[in-house]
Design goal:
- By secondary structure, the protein is mostly helical.
- It contains six helices and two strands.
- Helix 1 runs antiparallel to helix 5, helix 2 crosses helix 4 and helix 2 packs across helix 5.
- The model has no long low-confidence stretch (mean pLDDT 93).
């Protein structure tokens, strides 16, 4: 089931020339005002080199900006650009449609139960990174 859900989502994003990793990165950047490439790499469970490639692609699309910290020239903060802010709801709609396609047959109580069970398994197995593939 998991492969079908994630595969369908990846294909839908690919039609927009977006990878799942790019989608995850955009969401994480949008959520945290002080997001740095290192924090993002840790959250996504990818290497610094991999996050650099993902961020380069997002910057080429003009969806993110990298700003140097005033206090430390080595620190770069990430932010969505206006274009990134504009595209995120469109990508979120794709995610929501995918979820509805696969989980729409479940009641809200069943969805909550499934979410709880999956969260418990993630806790037991110490899975805290965000899947990107």
């Amino acid at each position: 089931m998991s492969n079908n859900v994630s595969g369908n989502f990846a294909r839908a994003l690919q039609e927009r020339s977006v990878s799942v990793a790019e989608w995850v990165a955009l969401n994480q950047i949008q959520r945290w005002a002080d997001m740095t490439p290192a924090k993002l790499a840790d959250a996504m469970g990818v290497t610094r080199g991999a996050i650099s490639k993902i961020l380069d692609k997002l910057q080429e699309k003009a969806w993110i900006s990298r700003m140097t910290s005033d206090g430390d020239n080595r620190v770069r903060y990430l932010a969505l650009t206006p274009k990134g802010v504009q595209v995120l709801p469109e990508l979120t709609a794709i995610a929501n449609q995918n979820d509805e396609h696969f989980f729409g047959a479940l009641s809200s109580d069943e969805r909550a139960t499934l979410r709880g069970l999956l969260s418990r398994l993630a806790d037991v197995h110490r899975i805290s990174t965000i899947p990107v593939d």
